[in-house]
Amino acid sequence: MQQGGLCADLHLRLSLDREGKTPIERQEADCRAWAARHGLTVRQVHVDRGKSGYKDVARKGFETATQAVISGAARTLIVWKLDRLSRKGTVEVGPILAEFDRVGGRLISVMDGLDSSRPGDRLAMASLSEWARTEAETQGERIRHAEQYLRGRGRWIGGQPPYGLRIDADSGRLAPDPDTAVYARLIADEALAGRPLVRIARLLNEYGIPAPRGGLWQVGSLSQLLRAPAFAGLLPETETVWDEKRGCRRYTGSVRPYRDPETGSSVVVGEGIVTVEEQRRITRELESRTRSRGDGLKQPTRGPAHLLTGFLHCDVEGCGARMSRNGTSYVCQGVRLGHTCPGARAMATPVEHAVTAVFLRRNPALATEWECGDVMQRRALLSGDVETVWVARAPGRGCRFDPGKRLRIVWVGEGHTE
To answer: To which H or E segment does residue 43 belong?
Structure first.
């Protein structure tokens, strides 16, 4: 007998957790009861929750459960019903039965009363698997027709709407949720103002506003929400691509607005939190914060982390190089790159305070916005008024830093310094 001869693994699957479906807990209880009646010890339980047994989606529970028997870790795999294991017919169930037979394993379907090690039961399993496939195809066709009918009438076709929205029971269209719409609009306003997503998440979490699925807000959930077509009142559609390896279409993680096949226009499915134009602005801003890598994945772009990077220039004759922060000082890049310039150097804190003081004297109306802004927002304010800040080199080592004597600020459009 194999090492796992007295051990059995369970595979449980539920595509949708809703009324009328046998919950995972009941499936597990029935399977464990069968194992106990037949003197088997349950070694491990493999679960695929929210996974279709018919569509081409990754099912980790299915893969680990079947591999456990093939590897000899367990001799028996128990499922509640055969269609819980797969709805793809003999194209998937047939090879599994063949592999189990090769290693001396067996498949048990509790509610169907089938054991693949018994003569005749394998034929019954093959027949049931094809019935499950046919039923899935028929059901899928009914769903497609129903979805097409609802799309044509601008109604929500199912699933959870984005945070801040609900489905109106009478019209079947999107409408603001009275409890969460105000927070959803706050998120949109903050994003339109250019606030970083991490700052928006921190604000929501500090005030104890729960995320859609409970718990804390994350940058990823905010990005997904702001980009969702339904957030702008448009009907969504999950993009599919052709999979050469599998020879079929598969779903991607990309959601886009559904377009009417006759008109080519996006379908409005109710009232969103933002307008379509506002969502375009938000999306453009979010896209500007990322760049594509060589492998096609995206990663954040890093803007200047310091207030005066890009504004400060070395005022040594013949140099004019930009200055960047190094430790507690801004340093001429010519020096850092090994050029012949002796290089200007300025202590960061006094220089930043000096430039800020002069800028706010010229723009007192911006004082509140400056105080509330982060580095990137303050840099945006500066760029509207400051063209260049020239930094002279100190006359000698050990001299007291005097920003008033060493700085020349060139104002945008004026050409003069202060």
So the answer is: strand 41-49
pTM here is 0.47
* Strand, helix or coil for residue 60: helix
Amino acid identity, position 246: R
User: Which residues are within 8 A (CB) of 72 and not within 5 positions of it... i.e. 6 or more apart?
Assistant: 2, 3, 4, 103
pLDDT over threshold 60, residue 76 = yes
Q: Which two tokens stand for residue 166?
A: 């609900």
pLDDT digits (tens, 9 = 90+) for 137-150: 676 566 566 556 56
Which whole-number Å values give the CA distances from 226 to 219, 237, 285, 312, 396, in the listed order? 11, 16, 11, 36, 55
Alpha-carbon gap, residue 69 to 90, rounded angstroms: 19
Number of Cβ atoms within 10 Å of the Cβ of 367: 11
What is the structure's pLDDT at 106?
94
Q: Which residues pair with 233 in a beta bridge?
A: none
Interacting residues of 2 by C-beta distance below 8 A, sequence separation 6+: 72, 75, 103, 104, 105
Using alpha carbons, list the distances in angstroms from residue 317 to 130, 346, 390, 401, 417: 84, 17, 11, 20, 17
Beta bridge partners of 291: 299
DSSP E strands: which ranges in 157-311?
A: 165-167, 174-176, 236-243, 248-257, 290-292, 298-300
Question: Token pair for residue 156?
Answer: 């929500």
